[in-house]
């Protein structure tokens, strides 16, 4: 059990060393400064910036990593290795049996990825090189002539399917394989419909130029015999005892990120019931929760409910398409950055931290053909 070295400070425990956890810690330091004593509980030793994994097999990006020990030192945070297993009033228990006291707890443990399309090869960022590297090799050898990228029902973020399809189409042409048929099967009513009609139309032009066919509203997927099928996964909840959850196991939260029925407990990111699982949204949810925790610590901070702004930098194979949708539903699309730093993951505090430690300019640089 850790002890509070500064009894006058609010003991804050952040469970999860991903986007939401790091954003919350940076926000708390900015908003509450020395009013909080922060402990980060994380099972891994590194933070992996995964959004560019999709581009690695195409030689257009690289996965970058940060040591959590360095982040903890720079943010004045105590780092504890372990996984959150159970929550009790004022106490968090790890899978190894350690007990960590808290005055405020932010649960940001993320979600698992599980296969959602029987018989398909499931793509995930950490399997990207293996899955896509093999496919590109077979396309170059002339062994794969029909390729389908599937967005299954329940998939919480369809964007990688479009990036994979577009970059595969352009690479096939570069290989001299002009007869490869590439399709996207999605339950959406239009490509990336969540960003509005204007964004869908812009994306369709890129898809048409690349020769990618999109079949919307597709479930089941029809005849895919003789087709190499690459499917996105479905998000699956991580189990943590003591937290209220929905029928799928995701944690319940209110508009401020508070977990109902548990005083001093918040949750943010993919582990919550918010239907879209995306890093930028996770960071915004964490920022909302951090404001509430900072106010509890006595900082002069106005709390506010979450009003997420959805952003996406979509690699088209011939450039980058920047998409943005604000809370009232208005959508924007541009070939020039709509936010800064122009990273794939946008967080009020984390974006600037990552820009100082990673090469984010290269991370969205997809050379024009």
How would you summarize the topology of this molecule?
Blueprint: E1 10-15, H1 19-32, E2 36-42, E3 46-49, E4 64-67, H2 68-75, E5 78-81, E6 84-88, E7 91-94, E8 99-101, E9 104-107, E10 111-114, E11 121-122, H3 128-140, E12 146-150, H4 159-174, E13 181-186, H5 197-210, E14 212-216, E15 228-231, E16 234-237, E17 265-267, H6 279-296, E18 310-315, E19 320-325, E20 331-334, H7 350-357, H8 360-363
Parallel strand pairs: 1-2, 1-9, 2-5, 9-17, 11-15, 12-13, 12-15, 13-14
Antiparallel strand pairs: 3-4, 6-7, 7-8, 10-16, 18-19, 19-20
Helix pairs in contact: 1-6, 3-4
Q: How would you describe this protein?
A:
With 369 residues, the chain is of the alpha/beta class. The protein folds into 2 domains: 160 residues, FAD/NAD(P)-binding domain; 120 residues, FAD/NAD(P)-binding domain. The strands form 6 sheets. A 5-stranded parallel β-sheet has the order 5-2-1-9-17, with helices on one face. It has a 5-stranded parallel β-sheet with strand order 11-15-12-13-14. The protein is elongated and about 70 Å long. The termini are far apart. The C terminus is likely disordered.
């Amino acid at each position: 059990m850790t002890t509070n070295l500064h009894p006058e400070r609010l003991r804050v425990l952040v469970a999860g060393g991903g986007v939401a956890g790091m954003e919350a810690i940076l926000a708390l330091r900015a908003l509450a400064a020395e009013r909080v004593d922060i402990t980060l509980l994380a099972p891994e030793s590194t933070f992996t910036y995964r959004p560019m994994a999709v581009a690695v097999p195409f030689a257009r990006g690289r996965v970058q990593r940060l040591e959590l020990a360095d982040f903890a030192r720079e943010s004045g945070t105590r780092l504890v290795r372990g996984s959150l297993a159970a929550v009790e009033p004022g106490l968090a228990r790890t899978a190894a049996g350690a007990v960590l006291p808290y005055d405020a707890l932010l649960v940001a443990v993320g979600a698992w990825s599980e296969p959602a399309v029987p018989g398909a090869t499931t793509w995930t960022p950490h399997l990207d090189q293996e899955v896509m590297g093999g496919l590109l090799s077979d396309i170059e050898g002339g062994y794969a002539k029909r390729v389908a990228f599937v967005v299954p029902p329940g998939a919480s973020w369809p964007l990688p399917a479009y990036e994979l399809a577009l970059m595969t189409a352009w690479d096939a042409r570069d290989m001299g394989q002009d007869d490869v048929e590439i399709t996207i099967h999605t339950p959406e009513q239009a490509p990336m419909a969540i960003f509005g009609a204007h964004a869908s139309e812009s994306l369709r032009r890129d898809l048409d130029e690349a020769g990618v066919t999109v079949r919307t509203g597709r479930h089941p997927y029809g005849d895919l015999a003789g087709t190499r099928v690459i499917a996105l996964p479905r998000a699956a909840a991580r189990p943590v005892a003591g937290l209220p959850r929905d029928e799928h196991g995701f944690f319940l939260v209110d508009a401020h990120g508070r977990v109902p029925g548990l005083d001093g407990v918040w949750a943010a990111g993919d582990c919550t019931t918010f239907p879209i699982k995306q890093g930028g949204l996770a960071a915004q949810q964490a920022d909302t929760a951090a404001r509430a925790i900072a106010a509890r610590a006595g900082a002069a901070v106005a709390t506010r409910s979450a009003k997420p702004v959805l952003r996406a930098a979509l690699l088209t194979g011939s450039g980058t398409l920047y998409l943005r949708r604000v809370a009232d539903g208005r959508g924007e699309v541009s070939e020039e950055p709509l936010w800064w730093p122009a990273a794939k993951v946008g967080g009020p505090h984390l974006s600037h931290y990552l820009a100082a430690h990673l090469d984010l300019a290269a991370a969205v640089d997809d050379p024009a053909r």
